[in-house]
Structures are given as structure tokens and as C-alpha cells.
Amino acid sequence: MSTERMPNPAVLIPEAMEALMGVNRAIAGAGVDGKLLALTHLRASQINGCGPCVAGGVHQARQHGVTADQVHAVAAWRETPWFNDEERAALALTEAVTRLADRPDPVPDPVWDLAAKHFDQKELAALLLNIAITNAFNRLNAPTRQQAGKW
User: Fold this and answer.
1) Which of the four, 7, 51, 54, 129, has the lowest number of CB atoms within 10 Å?
2) CA-CA distance, 140 to 151, in Å (whole number)?
3) How confident is the model at residue 3, as a pLDDT?
4) Which parts of the sequence belong to the Carboxymuconolactone decarboxylase-like domain (predicted)?
5) Is the C-alpha dihedral spanning 45, 62, 25, 131 positive or negative?
6) pLDDT below 50 — which residues of the chain?
7) Is 148 inside any structural domain?
């Protein structure tokens, strides 16, 4: 197993960590169900292969009432019966936003329109910020090879 290269950069620059955590607090206070935030965090972190964020996402998901079936199947959410339409819309948006470079139209209209059907603009803003901040943490943890369980 590879070893950690250095501490997470935001740990080395405490003001950066404070700012990132401030964004997290703002997202949490925006009125979106914590379950949705946890599912989107977990899915983005799985895509990016961020061990600490996957582990944290599972913990967060359990705290917000995500079922064991959902936690275990979030990577295969399309092929399971355990997600409602709102959760599916949020997960589709998460995948598109996390994989921006994978297609010429990064967030196709059908993905956006489905999300906009289930969430108002403030809720969409919170979801997009949650996906973005998750991707930011993933991009700090992955290159420095942060390990899950080392807090």
C-alpha cells in the first residue's frame, strides 16, 4: 500500500481548512436533506477514489438515515430499487458534475432538467456546492495519498 506523501494541504494551511469548513457549514444550513448531501458526497468520493472521503461519506450517510442497502449500492444506484426519484436526480447530477471532462456536454439537459424538477434554485445551489466541495477535498486527498481512518 502506498504511504501518505504529506498532510492534507488544507491542514498545513489552517485558514484554507477554515474556509472549506465554512462552505460545508453554509451547505448544511441551506435546507437540503442531509441524506442527499451524504449520498452525493459518497458518490463523488467513490468516483474519485478518495478513501478518507468514502469512509467519511459512509459515516455521514449512516448519521443521516441512509439505509445499509443504499450505502452498499450507491455506486450502482441505477440498478437497484433502493433510491427514490429525488435521490436518483441528485446522484445523476453528482456523477455528471464530478466527471466534467468525460463528455462534450458535461451536464446534459436531461440530467439538469431532472434535478431542476426535484430541487429549487437554492437547493440546486447547495447540491452543486456540496459536489464541488467534495471534489475539492478529493483532489486534496488523492494526490497526497491520504489514508482512510487516519484522523
Assistant:
1) 7
2) 15
3) 84
4) 14-95
5) positive
6) none
7) no
146 in a structural domain: no
Provide the residue range defining the domain that includes 57: 10-141
State the CATH number of the domain containing residue 80: 1.20.1290.10
Measured N-to-C along each axis, helices 109-118 and 121-141 cross at an angle, to the nearest 10 degrees, of: 120
Number of domains in the chain: 1
Q: Which residue has the cell 451547505?
A: 27
Q: Which residues contact 65 (CB under 8 A, 6 or more apart)?
A: 35
